[in-house]
């Protein structure tokens, strides 16, 4: 029997709301017919309580600190999977067979280069351009080069476009970096795997190949797969929103990059590093910094702390902290910002302000130290997040594309502006006249 909840409406009548139950027992009041049946909508500023879709990709239990991709705990994925296997799992729902792996790997290789005349677009950006603006613009521009990929009619075409996006986004990111430092753009190599190839394009020079250590490759692989999906976050919801209007995969993902850029979302990894650097360079103690955050002076937050969904711990942060310590050890790097991060976390985790609000380190808190150890400049951090999140965006786009019952996303609102007003023509406005209800026409409406 379908579960139902009963709403008592302001006029005393009742309305039965069906309950949708997820595979992990999550319960949602399904209000999709509420307005049609009662005239009411629901209001949920910031979507804190709104399920915008049903999805079979990623499960999060924020109270227990659980994150699973297609049912597999992220801890297992982190131990056993490459980023590309994780991408295949997220996009197609199952871990790839040997045959799937080879075919996809070939597709990634075949699609790794940028069209030769596309490369000249990099010269159109000023040297100080943020690589996130280059990345979103370039993904959008890519669709002009892949006209068959704009309307995806079969599985083969979808696989090719997915491989092209995953592969080219890495080439674009490295090319954006090379352009920003005035070095020649490196071509991808056909003998390197995904992560090594990215590091090669970032750090090789025409006269000297960069060979990353196994530890560096594995740390970046881990970073990418831990960012691969996170259900209906700001950027993924943006991808779904754009996709719901039947925009192409390229256009939808490019919008996702823009949504990710903000410092409350993917931009937080850059903001964390800037915060740690500021504390170090200013000589401020971590206690004083925490006191500044708590006083809400200047509206600063403890970047890399807090999460809309995790109210206990972020499992990605736990894995990344451990990986961070091991990487610095293996590369014999000491980074004083890691000590500052540890101290900040310790102070915050025993402070009532953070305890009472259930604020814990999130995925961005330690990730920047890993990226810094790998030689990635801070402006590129959010770009690395975008490369990592690409499989999740593609998987969500596919889920919508494959759903024959899908509709355009179109939320409603509760309007709070002026009620209908009488038109005051320019002549009357210029003389400061009032409308017939006696409202003074504001000065700033004068031409
Ligand atoms: N530092 C200080 N206070 C905080 C922080 C923080 N990092 N995060 C939340 N709070 C306070 C907030 O001011 C509010 O206090 P009060 O109830 O007294 O008004 C309370 O905690 C609840 O926070 P909220 O703003 O309602 O939480 P939210 O769910 O709207 O925002 C968040 C979540 C991640 C945007 C927020 O915690 C934040 O701004 N964190 C810092 C930025 C950051 O690290 N972002 C990365 C998120 S994880 C990666 C990703 O998915 O993008």
Structural commentary:
The chain is mainly alpha-helical and about 450 residues long. It is built from 18 helices and six strands. The chain has helices spanning about 35-40, 75-80, 85-90, 100-110, 130-145, 155-180, 195-205, 215-225, 235-245, 250-260, 270-280, 285-295, 315-330, 335-350, 350-355, 365-375, 380-400, 425-430; strands spanning about 5-10, 15-20, 25-30, 60, 65-70, 70-75. The strands form two sheets. Strands 1-2-3 form a three-stranded antiparallel beta sheet, with no helix packed on it. A three-stranded antiparallel beta sheet has the order 4-5-6. Strand 4 (about 60) and strand 5 form a beta hairpin. Helix 3 runs parallel beside helix 17 (about 380-400). It is globular and about 80 Å long. The mean pLDDT is about 95. Bound molecules: carboxymethyl coenzyme *A.
């Amino acid at each position: 029997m379908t579960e139902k909840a009963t709403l008592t409406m302001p006029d005393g009548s009742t309305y039965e709301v069906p309950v949708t139950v997820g595979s992990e027992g999550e319960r949602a009041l399904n209000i999709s017919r509420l307005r049609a049946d009662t005239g009411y909508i629901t209001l949920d500023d910031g979507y804190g309580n709104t399920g915008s879709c049903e999805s079979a990709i990623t499960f999060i239990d924020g109270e227990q600190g659980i994150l699973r991709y297609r049912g597999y705990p992220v801890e297992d994925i982190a131990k056993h999977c490459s980023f590309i296997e994780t991408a295949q799992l997220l996009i197609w729902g199952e871990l790839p067979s040997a045959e799937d792996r080879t075919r996809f790997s070939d597709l990634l290789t075949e699609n790794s280069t940028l069209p030769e005349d596309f490369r000249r677009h990099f010269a159109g950006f000023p040297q100080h351009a943020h690589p996130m603006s280059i990345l979103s613009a370039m993904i959008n521009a890519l669709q002009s080069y892949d006209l068959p990929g704009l309307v995806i009619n079969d599985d083969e075409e979808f696989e090719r476009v997915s491989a092209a996006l995953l592969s080219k986004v890495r080439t674009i990111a490295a090319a954006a970096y090379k352009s920003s430092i005035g070095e020649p753009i490196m071509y991808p190599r056909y003998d390197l795997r995904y992560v090594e190839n990215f590091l090669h394009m970032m750090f090789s020079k025409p006269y000297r190949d960069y060979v990353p250590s196994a530890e560096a490759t594995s740390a970046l692989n881990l970073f990418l797969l831990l960012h691969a999906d996170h259900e209906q976050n700001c950027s993924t919801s943006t991808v779904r929103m754009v996709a719901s209007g039947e925009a192409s995969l390229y256009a939808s993902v490019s919008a996702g990059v823009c949504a990710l850029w903000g410092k409350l979302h993917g931009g937080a990894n850059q903001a964390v590093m800037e915060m740690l650097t500021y504390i170090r360079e200013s000589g401020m103690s971590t206690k004083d910094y925490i006191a500044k955050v708590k006083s809400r002076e200047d509206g600063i937050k403890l970047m890399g702390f807090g999460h809309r969904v995790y109210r206990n711990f972020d499992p990605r942060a736990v894995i990344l902290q451990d990986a961070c310590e091991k990487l610095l050890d293996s590369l014999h790097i000491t980074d004083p910002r890691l000590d500052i991060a540890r101290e900040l976390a310790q102070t915050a985790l025993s402070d009532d302000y953070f305890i009472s609000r259930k604020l814990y380190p999130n995925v961005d808190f330690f990730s920047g130290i890993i990226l810094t150890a790998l030689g990635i400049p801070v402006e590129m951090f959010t770009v690395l997040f975008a490369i990592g999140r690409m499989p999740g965006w593609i998987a969500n786009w596919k889920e919508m594309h494959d759903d024959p019952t899908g509709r355009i996303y179109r939320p409603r609102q509760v309007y709070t502006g002026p009620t209908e007003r009488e038109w005051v023509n320019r002549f009357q406005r210029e003389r400061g006249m009032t409308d017939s209800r006696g409202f003074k026409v504001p000065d700033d409406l004068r031409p």
